[in-house]
Amino acid sequence: MTDPQLSERMPDVSGADAYGTLDPAALRHVDSLKWNRYGEGVIPLWIADMDFPVAPPILAALQERLGQGLGYHLQGGATLQSALLEKLAAQGLTDLPEDGLSFLPGVVPGLYTAVAALTEPGEPVLTMTPIYHPFHLSITEQGRRVAAAPLREGAEGDTAHWEIDWDALEAAAQGTRLLMLCHPHNPTGRVWNAEELARLRDFVLAHDLYVVSDELHADLRLTDAPFESFAADPRVRARTLTLTGPCKAYNTAALGIGVLVGHDPALVRRVRAAAGGLMGHPSALSATMWLAALQEGGPWLQGTLDYLRGNRDVMHAFLDARLPWVRATSPEATYLAWLDLRAHPRAGDIQNFLLEEARIAVHDGPLFAPDALKPQYQGFIRLNFATSRGLLLEALERMADALGAEVPA
Ligand SMILES: Cc1ncc(COP(=O)(O)O)c(C=O)c1O
C-alpha cells in the first residue's frame, strides 16, 4: 500500500491476518463454483461462501464419521435435536416441541415448500427488496406473484443504512397471506432491531399473515448487539416458521442441511407435506458436520468473525480514502457489503464493467429484485469480503483503478 494517506486511515489488523496466505491456485480447486465461474485472473467476490478452510473440529468429525459406514442414518439423532433446541432457545425460540423441527437438505428448499404450502397459485407473496434472489424465485417459479416493499435508505454517519419502509410494506401487503422475511438481511446486512421486530410483529398480527423467517445468517453477527428470532415473541409463534442452518457461519455450503422450525407442529407438518417425498433428506455427513459445529465450532467461529470485522474495517477505510463517492453499508451481520455505485458513469453496466476492467466478479444489484423493480437497483453491487485480506485489498485496488479512470462528477 503506497498511498500514505490510505495507510494512516487503515485499521491495524496486521497481527490478526490468519488467512493472509490463501492461495488463489488452491482455492480454484476443480469443484469450486466461486473460483471457476469466471476466468483465470478474476478475483471472485460474488457467491456467498468464505475462502477459508474447514474448521478443524468439523474436519475431524467428518473424517471419523466416514470410518463408520454410510447406511441410512438418524439425521444426527437426539443429540443434534437437543443441541439445536438449546441453540434456538438462546435466540428466543424457547419451548419448542421436539416435533417442531424438520430437517431439510438446505434452507432454499424450505423457502420453496413454505410458498407451496401456505399460498395458492396466482396469489401475491409479501417480501422486502433488495433481497436474496431465491426469495423471488420461490414465488415466481411456483406461479405466485411478488408483492415487494422496497427498503428505504436511511443514513448512519458515513455509511448507508437500510430500513423498513412501513408505508411501502403496508401498501404491498394488500391481499397477501405470507411474509417472507430475511433476518439478518441479505444483501443489506441488517439485523432487524428490537423496535423493528416489535413493529413487524404488530404488522403481521394486524394483517393476519404467516411468516417465514430465514435466519441463516444469524451467527455471522459483526456487532455486539444480541440476536432475537422473529418468533421469540409468543404472540407470533403459531404463525411463524423459522429456517436456519450451519452453512453460512461454518462455511459448509457443500454439505447441504437446514431445518424448518415451528412452534405449531401441525404447521411444520403441513409445509413438509407440501414437498411430499420430493424433498429428500440431508446426508449423514451434513448432520455430523452440524453437530460438530454446534458442540465444538465456537472458537473457530469467533476467530472468523474477528477476521471478518477486520476485513469490513479495511474495506471501509479503503473506500473512504480512494472511492469516497461509493455509498457502502456497514453490515451488522453477514460478510456481504451492499455498495451504491450509481454515481459512476458506468453504473448502467457496473457488474460487467468491473469484471472486464477490474477483473473482479461481484453480484449485480438487479439480481436482488423482481423484474419490475430491477431498474431501481442498477448501479448497486453486492461484494463478498470473506476472503484473505491480501486478496480483498488487491480486489479493492483493482476496483479503484478501474473506476478511477472515469471519476463521477
Ligand atoms: C438468506 C439466505 N438464505 C438461504 C441461503 C442458501 O441456503 P442453502 O444453501 O442452505 O439452501 C443463502 C445463501 O446465501 C442466504 O443468504
UniProtKB/TrEMBL annotation:
InterPro entries: Aminotransferase_I/II_large (IPR004839), Class-II_PLP-Dep_Aminotrans (IPR051798), PyrdxlP-dep_Trfase (IPR015424), PyrdxlP-dep_Trfase_major (IPR015421), PyrdxlP-dep_Trfase_small (IPR015422). Pfam families: Aminotran_1_2 (PF00155). Keywords: Lyase, Pyridoxal phosphate. Its cofactor is pyridoxal 5'-phosphate. Residues 74-398 form the Aminotransferase class I/classII large domain. Its EC number is 4.4.1.13. CDD domains: AAT_like. The keyword Lyase applies. The keyword Lyase applies. Belongs to the class-II pyridoxal-phosphate-dependent aminotransferase family. MalY/PatB cystathionine beta-lyase subfamily. This is cysteine-S-conjugate beta-lyase. It comes from Deinococcus carri.
